[in-house]
Amino acid sequence: YKSPSETVLTSRKDVFFSLCKSIVGQQISVAAANSVFLKFKNKCKGKINPRIVNKLSSSSLKNCGLSRQKTRGIKELAKKILNKEFNPSLIQNMNDEEAIEYLSNLRQIGRWSAEMILLFTFNRSNIWPLQDIGLLRAISNNYKKKYFPPKSFLKKLYKKFTPYCSVATWYLWRSIDDEPIQY
Predict the structure, then answer these.
(1) CA gap 116, 142 in Å, rounded
(2) Looking at residue 43, what DSSP letter applies?
């Protein structure tokens, strides 16, 4: 028996939580990211939201294992939400590229992180994250292409899978890793 979260893409629907998780996990192993995030979550007493994070000192965040840049990115995100400089609810009315640009204006959030937020938090149907190593590796394996697959081939797949690139991405990821991906 497989639970629904193992067979379908599920959303946490909490943009702040997902952005924090994204920032924590950048450029470190999954195991390290999970360890740091657990410490961060404990520091927030299990309630990761802008108000609580804003009250935490930078040194207490660094003690969780966060770098200076990640600490700054998370603190700035909390402040921007509290000051209404960043409004996650606006993303619902944006197309994918507008949303990626909006999210990418945040410190520590680039295109890949923005795409992961759109795919996992907003369940957007046509995200094709070509900066994702796992996706490129899965395409190479499943389509017998060298790693990195040629851009022309990636464009063909994009056209073939549109408007359901997110579904294709998820299944391609699952083809190389049995663990359901959650962001």
Answers:
(1) 22
(2) H
Angle between helices 15-25 and 111-120 (to 10 degrees): 140
CA distance 96 to 161: 16
Tokens representing residue 45 in the block = 């007493």
Sequence-ordered alpha helix ranges (H) in the chain: 4-7, 15-25, 30-43, 50-55, 58-62, 68-82, 96-104, 111-120, 133-142, 151-161, 165-176
Tokens of 33: 């990211």
Is the pTM higher than 0.90? The answer reads no
- The arithmetic mean of pLDDT across residues 28-51, rounded, is 94
CATH homologous superfamily of 15-120 equals: Hypothetical protein; domain 2 (1.10.340.30)
Could you state, in order of their start, the residue ranges of all structural domains in the chain? Answer: 15-120, 133-176
Distance from C-alpha of 27 to C-alpha of 134, rounded to nearest angstrom: 14
Distance CA(63)–CA(43), nearest Å, equals 10
**Tokens found for residue 57:** 């000192």
Q: What is the pLDDT of residue 19?
A: 96
